[in-house]
Design brief:
Rossmann fold; alpha/beta; 4 domains; 8% strand; 5-stranded parallel β-sheet; Helicase, Ruva Protein, domain 3; two-stranded parallel ribbon; 48% helix; single chain; 461 residues
């Protein structure tokens, strides 16, 4: 499988010897940045032949009367947003200008627009403006971008880790091509790291990478290319420093070097094996058992091992529905909100959101009454019970329905006291069957009395 960063040097690049010398001049993640669209992989859903992004990088879109003149790249950190901006800037007749939404203001934006207009009219050069973290821009700052985007003074490439529908003003969003970047897979990260070891722009084969060290780097990266390369560079420095001068052949980066470099010990956790399922099982059972401390421990093990936070969030949602249920209805709201928050902010900050959800669920009153109720209802359906539908509940809106007796005798609930009418709702063979049996825990303590009253009115008992 190809990786995010290609390994073939482009024409005109420095020789291997010169590249090795330049290896000390910049971070590994910067040196390994792709130089063309063909070197960028890992986002192939955006880079197919004839895709708008590929055309924009080639200079075929955004410079004429049609086609997008701005692009908003939305995705987790380390998935290639800055890389794609640089690739677009390498197109013919382009120059690259970068602004950070953290430090830039309206005055900076207007200055770039003025310079871009001059460059276009006098030098026939298109300015590619890369704006990182556009979600941090205020409405006024984003509005300052509109003239340059609308009049095509610049090709705007804006990057954000937050949903642009909520963080980017509508006029700018409507004038932009919104592209969603996907997290890199473990295979992408593994190949990326291995290429960086041998590439002349990278470590130029000065080191070799042990398998367990590579796996540790992949887990620590969590789909973030920049994090993987930064950790690799630090581990290589540790290995080379310990080996000293005058050694024969490349130095091997061992697991201990990666652990020392990033100050994090490898966690025994095989995401494809038994340990993965054992830890997840212990995690869910600790929540169910109301042991908040054990639940946080297993959460920490999954986070440190590089487990996909979206997987953890999904398990928390299931736990809220299955084990807490109506004893604390807000638990499911917390779980869903946590999943959405993790998707928006990513890791490592997402660990805080997951921890809050785990604490809520582990300390909440527990009930599996809804879970058991639907299981019992499904079992009866599979056993052939519940045949037919009472005529008064059937659809009476189509021609001939009234002749068949559909809807006859139906009691409209809102016409009855308290909007609850006495009426048969289940099929004849399930009359009086109770599926939902509330517990006396949490909110279900009060719900039990209400369910009893409702059944008494509806069934006339």
């Amino acid at each position: 499988m190809e990786d995010l960063f290609g390994s073939e040097p482009a024409a005109g690049e420095p020789s291997s010897a010169r590249a090795a010398a330049e290896a000390q001049r910049g971070p590994l993640a910067v040196r390994m940045r792709p130089r063309s669209v063909d070197e960028v992989v890992g986002q192939q859903h955006l880079l197919g032949e004839g895709s708008p992004l590929r055309q924009l990088a080639a200079g075929a879109a955004g410079s004429g009367p049609t086609g997008p003149s701005s692009v908003i790249l939305w995705g987790p950190p380390g998935t290639g947003k800055t890389t794609l901006a640089h690739v677009i800037a390498r197109g013919p007749g382009r120059k690259f200008v970068e602004l950070s939404a953290i430090t830039a203001g309206v005055k900076d934006v207007r200055r770039v627009m003025d310079e871009a207009l001059t460059a276009r009219d006098l030098h026939r050069t298109t300015t590619v403006l890369f704006l990182d973290e556009i979600h941090r821009f205020t409405k006024a700052q984003q509005d300052a971008l509109l003239p340059g985007v609308e009049n095509r003074w610049v090709v705007l490439v804006a990057a954000t880790t937050e949903n642009p529908s909520f963080s980017v003003v509508s006029p700018l969003l409507s004038r932009s091509l919104l592209l969603t970047l996907k997290p890199l897979t473990d295979e992408d990260i593994r190949d990326l790291v291995e290429r960086a070891v041998t590439d002349p722009r990278g470590l130029a084969s000065a080191v070799v990478l042990a398998d367990d060290a590579a796996e540790h780097l992949v887990r620590l990266a969590g789909g973030d290319a920049r994090r993987a390369l930064t950790a690799l560079e630090a581990a290589a420095a540790v290995a080379l420093n310990q080996a000293g001068e005058g050694g024969d052949g490349p130095v091997t980066i061992e697991l201990a070097h990666t652990e020392k470099a990033v100050d994090a010990h490898a966690v025994r956790y095989d995401r494809a094996g038994d340990m993965h399922y054992d830890v997840v099982s212990a995690f869910i059972k600790s929540i169910r058992g109301s042991d908040v401390d054990a639940a946080l421990h297993y959460l920490a093990r999954m986070v440190e091992a590089g487990e996909d936070p979206r997987f953890i969030a999904r398990r928390i949602i299931i736990s809220a529905a299955e084990d807490i249920g109506m004893a604390d209805p807000s638990a499911l709201q917390t779980a869903v909100a946590a999943a959405q928050a993790v998707q928006l902010i990513g890791m490592p900050e997402g660990r805080i959101v997951l921890a809050e959800a785990v604490v809520h669920l582990a300390t909440a009153p527990k009930s599996n009454a809804a879970y058991m109720g639907i299981n019992a209802a499904i079992a009866d359906v599979r056993a052939g019970l519940g045949t037919g539908i009472p005529p008064h509940l059937r659809d009476a809106h189509y021609a001939g329905a009234q002749r068949l007796g559909h809807g006859k005798g139906y009691a409209y609930a809102h016409d009855a006291p308290h909007s609850v009418a006495r009426q048969q709702y289940p099929p004849d063979d399930l009359v009086g069957k109770d599926y939902y049996l509330p517990t006396g825990n949490g909110a279900e303590r009060e719900l039990q009395a209400r369910v009893d009253r409702l059944r008494g009115i509806v069934r006339g008992s």
